[in-house]
Amino acid sequence: MRLGEEVESVEEIADGAVVANLESKKKMSGDTLLYAVGRQGNIDDLNLAAAGVEADNRGRIPVDKDFRTKVPHIFAVGDVIGFPALASVSMEQGRIAAARAFGDDHVVSNPSFYPYGIYTIPEISFIGKTEEQLTEEDVPYEVGVAYYREIARGQIRGDTTGRLKLIFNRETRQVLGVHIIGEGAAELVHIGQAVMVLNGTVDYFIDTVFNYPTLAECYKAAAFNGINRLARFEG
After folding, report:
1. Is the model's pTM score more than 0.85?
2. Tell me: the pLDDT tens digits for 75-116?
3. Is the distance from CB of 195 to CB of 204 less than 8 angstroms?
4. What average pLDDT score do residues 124-136 get?
């Protein structure tokens, strides 16, 4: 991982390999280079100007919290409005927009409880706040971590790199975030989501019995890890 770097140029060298020249004067070589420039809205054939709707230089349409565009009776949802550009979130945005279009203000949704899934290998999924966000907000928090290699199901699967991190408030013990990397992460995160939506605490995971052997046991192991960290300061 080369964080905070910018690619200056790319060149092909012997045997079809490539070199990425970074602005910091570093060089990175490999057999293949994948260069991602981000998403752009597919709006070229929509003639938005005729409707009075505007988009930015990446084809993204600005909307308000109810997904109304600059033209009050025109709504936009999904990838074309930008982050997070997830199918599950886009469907929810469409539900809210449809309700607002017909004057229904009772349909609500809380973006802070939207889970994010990245279907790579290993899979990545998370919900809630990060440690960096909580630090900026001056929220007292503690972290508990469980590794797949510690859990019987992880050993059975042969996943030695997966891990689950619980973040909870040190004072109220309320769960503030769940971050998972490993097989089944996008499914596993929903357990943490349910607890967070119900304002649950880390004690839920300690007091709850999970099927054995399952990856869900990571929640219990992470909870004990976090509580043990807390106990060091509480005496």
Report:
1. no
2. 999 999 998 888 999 999 999 999 999 999 999 889 899 999
3. yes
4. 96
Q: Which of 166, 156, 162, 157 is nearest to 221 (CA)?
A: 166
What average pLDDT does the structure give for the chain? 93
Q: What is the pLDDT of residue 32?
A: 86
SS (H, E, C) the chain: CCCCCCEEEEEECHHHCEEEEECCCCEEEECCCCCCCCCCCCCCCCCHHHHCCCCCCCCCCCCCCCCECCCCCCECCHHHHCCCCCHHHHHHHHHHHHHHHCCCCCCCCCHHHCCEEECCCCCEEEEECCHHHHHHCCCCEEEEEEEHHHCHHHHHHCCCCCEEEEEEECCCCEEEEEEEECCCHHHHHHHHHHHHHCCCECHHHHHCCCCCCCCCHHHHHHHHHHHHHHHHHHC
In contact, 130 and 177? CB cutoff 8 Å: yes
